[in-house]
Design brief:
By secondary structure, the protein is mainly alpha-helical. It is flat and about 50 Å long. The two termini are about 25 Å apart.
């Protein structure tokens, strides 16, 4: 379930941040900020749904999934295909996120 929550959080975070990008960099209407603010609120709420004894650990592990999701956004929404360095870097980050989230605690 954690991966599903992280995936949804990433979608909302990227969408919310993209609304600001669209307004400031692409010349879109400031009205793009309204759904962006809602999306960012949902993103923050979703991260509280992750089972973790420390918020910092939940956020750190989320970072790896966020990187992969950002590259998928770049490919799907912006039409820029990730290159081999993007894919390799994302794989390393996902491995690190898995270690942070599921590694044995002493």
């Amino acid at each position: 379930m954690t991966v599903v929550v992280y995936a949804a959080a990433a979608l909302f975070e990227i969408g919310g941040c993209f609304s600001v990008w669209a307004w400031l960099r692409l010349g879109r209407s400031a009205w793009w900020l309204v759904p962006g603010a809602v999306a960012l609120g949902l993103f923050a709420w979703l991260l509280t749904r992750v089972e973790s004894e420390a918020a910092g650990r939940a956020y750190a592990a989320y970072g790896g999934l966020y990187i992969g999701a950002s590259l998928l956004w770049m490919w799907g929404a912006e039409g820029q295909r990730p290159d081999r360095f993007d894919v390799t870097g994302a794989a390393l980050c996902l491995a690190g996120a898995g270690l942070i989230l599921y590694g044995p605690r002493t």
